[in-house]
Structures are given as C-alpha cells and as structure tokens.
Design goal:
alpha/beta, TIM Barrel, binds coproporphyrinogen III
C-alpha cells in the first residue's frame, strides 16, 4: 500500500484515485436554505459570522451534519480579503456585496494594500484550525479564494454586475492598470490560499465564478496569466487545487492551462463531453443544475443518474452542482441527492482502504 495515498473519498477523487462511492459536496452548502443558518443570521451579520471563528466553524459544520457530504467548505466569502486591502465592504440585504470605494484608476490600484493573511485574516485561520479538530478524517476541509477576474470585477464595479461595463472598460481602455490590479490580486489570493493550507485546509478551490463573461481571446490576454500565477503559487501547498467557473464551455482548455488538479464543470456542458476535452490528467467536479434541486423526485433522480452515467465510474469525478445552492432550495432534496449518489457502488469493487 502506498502510504502517501489519501483515504478520504473526496481527496482520492481529487487525485484521480479509485473510490468506493462518488464523493459529493455542494457549493454554498452552508447558507440560507438551512433553518440552522437562518437562525444564526437573525443574531449576526454575514461579516460577524466570518469574523468569529466559533461561529464560522459552526456554520461550516451545519451541512456536514445535516447532509452527510464528503467534504466541508470553510464558511467565509471570496470578498473577505478586500477588507485588509483597505476596501469598504458590506453585504446589503437584497443587493449582495456593496463596495464603498470602487477601484477604477491607477491611484486606486496603488492604494490597495497587500497584507499578511496569517495575521490580518487570523480569524479565518483560527476557524480552519478549529474545524480540523472537529471534522472526521473522512470529511476533508476545503479552503478557497476568489480568482483575480471575479474578485476584480466586484472591486471595479462596486458590487454585482450584469454587463461588467466598468470592468471591461478598464480592461480594454487602461490595460496597464488592469494588469497591475490583477497582479496585486493574484499576489494576495495566492498568499491567502497558502495560509489556509498552512492552517490545515486539505484542498483549495479558486472561484472564478463570472469568468464566463469573457471571450476566449480576452480570457487568454487579460486573465489566464494571473489565474496561473495564483494556482502556480498555491500548488506549493501540496494539496489538491480545484479551478471553478461558470459559463465556461468555451474556456475549459484555457482554464486547465491556467492550472488546477480538478476543473469545475457547470451544467451547460455535458459532463462526459467536458471531461473528454480535458483528458484523463484532470479530475472534474460538477455538474448538476442547482435548479434541478427544485424538481420533483423523478426528474431530479434522472438528472443525478445522467451525471453519474456520464462519469461512468471513472476515477476523478466529484459530484457537485454547476454553481451554488439557491436560498429557496428544499433541504430534503439536497439530502436525497447525497443519498442517491452514495447509493451507487462503483465498479470494479475497490480494495479495502486500511
Ligand atoms: O457554504 C459555502 O459555500 C461556504 C461559504 C461561501 C460564501 N460565499 C458565503 C456567503 C462561499 C464559498 C462563498 C463564495 C462566494 N462569494 C462566491 C463564489 C461562489 C459563487 O457563488 O459563485 C461569490 C461570487 C461571492 C460573493 C457574494 N457573497 C455574493 C454575490 C453574495 C450575495 C448573494 C447571496 O448569495 O446572497 C454573497 C453573500 C454570501 N456569501 C452569503 C453566503 C452564505 C449569503 C449571505 C447571507 O447570509 O445573507
């Protein structure tokens, strides 16, 4: 037996190793669709939960207890590192993130502070250390950060955006400023990911949620080198890296070039076709439509089965949604998906893992 092989299903699948059942977890598995979370949110804001390690750890554990998932994702937000960079960040009900001082000029980029994540985001590291004590070996902890494009787009727009008017204007009109911002974000996010691994995160996911807004040519010129810098630096942590985006059907090969052991696939790409394009050197994560969780049981079961059929028991598939769980999702449907995925034993039968 090779000593270095991980035993947890999720970590084995990240490495393309055979597993007994397909590991499953959900993006945004902690959140408003759970009554336990809503109860805590009556007393604390999102940023307050993130700032208190005991609360962040508790919220991280809620879906692990309720759903029986194969991985935990740290409760935090991709925008948290903006606070020590000097950004005025708030989450406004019904509106999402709001940035009081958007970044749109060379001076704005210059003014952004780089920082030491182990110190300035020490509450995040403390939550990770707490969670590593509480989680069983079979449920690894995923740390994460936002990719330079996705975080940069919030930073430039001042919040969520539909057309990325300000972000793309900066990208096309002031490419030097754009690249300076991306470089700064890449440096910060790489250090943040490494600090999370150092604190105990057993896998790291880079969220480039909105990168599907770009053409392949723009992705290659304006984003890929910066995402690659983050993933290259993070790879020295020695834990699996997951590279995720949505609307990425035309970007998959380029995202793979940028890096990551596991590539996220959203529901717009059939899992087998996406995986065939990436080849056996990549593991894949996905790709149920989050809206399928609202479907009646037969339709939901059909969609889950279709994904498992397309993965065909090949090592290196992590079952997940193509994007995050929506707040209105019925919890019992989420739990039923975990049970359905776990009910399917994979062939050929595995050697027992000691
Ligand atoms: O369970 C988990 O997935 C861990 C926690 C987590 C949160 N945000 C908590 C959160 C994670 C992994 C994120 C990542 C994140 N944050 C992304 C990338 C993933 C994705 O969905 O694409 C993005 C783009 C953000 C930025 C962000 N944070 C937005 C746009 C919003 C508002 C929209 C919304 O869902 O309300 C947030 C707020 C946020 N982050 C919530 C949670 C649970 C909801 C806040 C609340 O309780 O009111």
């Amino acid at each position: 037996m090779k000593i270095a092989e991980p035993q947890a299903r999720f970590l084995r699948a990240c490495r393309g190793l055979p597993v007994d059942r397909t590991p499953v977890w959900f993006m945004r598995q902690a959140g408003r669709y759970m009554a336990e979370y809503r109860a805590l949110r009556q007393r604390y804001s999102l940023l307050e939960i993130c700032a208190q390690p005991e609360l962040a750890a508790e919220v991280t554990l809620q879906p692990v207890r309720a759903l029986g998932v194969d991985a935990a994702i740290l409760f935090a937000d991709i925008l948290l590192p903006l606070v020590p960079m000097g950004i005025d960040l708030d989450f406004v009900k019904g509106q999402g993130p709001v940035i009081g001082n958007p970044v749109r000029s060379p001076a704005d980029v210059q003014a952004l502070r780089t920082f030491d994540p182990a110190e300035d985001l020490s509450h995040v590291m403390a939550a990770i250390r707490l969670l590593r004590q509480e989680l069983p070996e079979s449920v690894p902890l995923i740390g994460f950060a936002g990719a330079p494009f996705t975080v940069g787009s919030y930073l430039i727009e001042g919040g969520s955006s539909r057309h990325y008017l300000h972000a793309k204007s900066l990208m096309y009109g002031q490419p030097e400023t754009w690249h300076a911002l991306m470089e700064k974000l890449a440096r910060v996010q790489a250090a943040y990911l490494l600090a999370q691994a150092q604190a105990g995160a057993q896998a790291l996911q880079l969220f480039d949620s909105w990168v599907g807004a770009l053409s392949p040519d723009d992705y290659r010129r304006f984003v890929l080198p910066h995402s690659r810098d983050v993933l290259d630096a993070a790879s020295s942590a020695g834990v699996p890296l997951i590279h995720f985006g949505t609307g990425t059907a035309t970007l998959l090969e380029d995202m793979q070039q940028a890096g990551g052991d596991v590539i996220g696939l959203d529901w717009r790409v059939p899992l087998d076709q996406g995986w065939a394009r990436l080849g056996t050197e990549s593991a894949v994560q996905g790709n149920l439509d989050p809206l399928a969780l609202f479907a009646p049981e037969p339709e939901r079961r059909r969609q889950v089965d279709r994904i498992l059929d397309q993965a065909a028991g090949r090592p290196g598939h992590i079952f997940n949604l193509g994007h995050g769980i929506l707040p209105q999702t019925p919890v019992e449907h989420v739990r039923a998906v975990v049970e359905q995925v776990h009910a399917r034993a994979l062939e050929p039968a595995q050697e027992p893992i000691l």
